[in-house]
Amino acid sequence: MGAECWRSLLLLLAALVLTAKLDRFQRWGGFQEKSKSQKNMNSTLKFFIENYNNVSNDTYLFQVDKLLQSYMQLTTGVEYLATVKISRTKCKKNSTKSHSCPQQSEKKLKKSFICDFLIYTVPWMNYYELWNNSCQEAH
Question: How far from each other are the two terminal CA atoms of the chain, in whole angstroms?
């Protein structure tokens, strides 16, 4: 067999493997609605709010108030598509007690957002990546 024949066989094998993998992805069925309980998403929500606080120009930290909607899709990891309500806390960004921050109570400083985000995670490797995020002020 010549080199050209081997090249053709390798291309055919690669095409078959790719087709089998794509078929497996299609059987996963896309995003499935999840319970609004935070217990299955705690680490994902924590990653989201830490990311939000790191890129925000706000002096104060924000925290997740409520999980409004949650969808999950299995791919090579897990993709979470979620909507949350976040609110400004009384803790400033450089504060050391960020785990127990009460919500801002002063009327002028109160601020909340509704955020939609898409996070890809490989939980068994503790890997998270924010793929998309948009927030609008809640009224």
Answer: 72
